[in-house]
Amino acid sequence: MPDTPNTLPYAGLRVVEFTHMVMGPTCGMVLADLGAEVIKVEPVGHGRQGDATRQLIGSGAGFFPMFNRNKKSVALDLLTPEGKEAVLKLIATADVVSENFKPGTMQKLGLDHASLKTLNPRLIYVSHKGFLPGPYEHRTALDEVVQMMGGLAYMTGRPGDPLRAGTSVNDIMGGMFGAIGAMAALAQREKTGLGQEVQSALFENNVFLVAQHMMQFAVTGKAAAPMPARISAWAVYDVFQVKNGEQIFLAVVSDSAWKTFCHAFGFADLLDDERLRSNNDRVRAREWMLPELRQRLAQHSAAELAAVFEANALPFAPITQPQDLFDDPHLNATGGLAPIELPDGRPAKAVLLPVTLDGARPPVRLSPPKLGEHNVEVLTALGYSAEQAQALGAPQDTM
């Protein structure tokens, strides 16, 4: 981890988060990567042992290590007077509070915006929910739920076979919009001196993602077809099965690119074919043209095709599985992956934010924390002794 002083944009900003799963932790991770001190308050006692995503398996196994780097962990039992007192002292020092629990949860704890703004008028309070306030706000939402009801699963799957996207797109982007809202509120606070509440929601995020298809209908009067059944704007824009059963995505999206493509592969007959003169002509000819191209290109390996396309500045892509990206030469050469230590002590690589600041990617300063790892550091600064800080992180359950 870097030993240099934190000179990132949000250095000196303190964020206290009450989050779990993906959406809320993503917001905190973005602010943490940009330099903020993010303190993750994790529940203990009464059968709870921190953020439940620490114990997830299967497709959830990557949640905690991915979205909780650059954070500190403070374990507290908020159902005890001592834990509640400690967290209120902590919030009094915070610039931002972030949460993503069910509606009413933070209010029951006395940690909702209305309660906390009297304690700290400069506080920015970010809530991540399933739905913004309205008729649906009482519903329980998940990424898959809003993908189904928000048109994304329809657009992703084949007709009659709605399919969720292959990653937590709404959770991640919902957290990003929560972070953007926090940034806007921080800028506003510079003018007014006051904090405010920011809300971000899964459903509204999903609607934003499919808004281009809504506008497509508004412009054309025709419903957007699911992506696998759409009439592509481009004649060659597809996955090709090639030599040895390999697959590769190839694209030829302009008339000049078509000339380049035909010259590169010696397809003079196709270049001279009047039926293929323009891109729109080729779109209309896809039914017979694509099988012809598939047959001709099948004699090449994916690597051979990639080399020709790259040499001629034509778009292409290998069909890559996520784990293969750890060895991607571009990501490794450009510093897009950084070493971290998993909570169980094993080394791994973390994917950094996809931005550069003055030519550098915001780094990993802290590996994902162990539960309560920073109790002593954080709570002693609030006036607790080291013994008290440790005791607050390991309360005894009461019967």
What does the radius of gyration come to? Answer: 26 Å
As an assembly, this protein is single chain
Described by the principal axes of the CA atoms, the overall outline is elongated
* Fourth CATH level, the homologous superfamily of the largest domain: Crotonobetainyl-coa:carnitine coa-transferase, domain 1
Helix % is 25-40%
Order of helices and strands: EHEEHEHEHHEHHHEHHEEHHHHHEHEEHH
The amount of beta strand, in percent, is: 15-25%
| Low-confidence runs of at least 5 consecutive residues | none
CATH architectural label of the largest domain:
3-Layer(aba) Sandwich
Tell me how many strands there are.
Answer: 12
The number of domains is 2
User: DSSP helix count?
Assistant: 18
Based on secondary structure, the structural category is alpha/beta
Query: What would CATH call the class of the largest domain?
Result: Alpha Beta
Features:
Rossmann fold, alpha/beta, formyl-coa transferase, domain 3, 399 residues, 12 strands
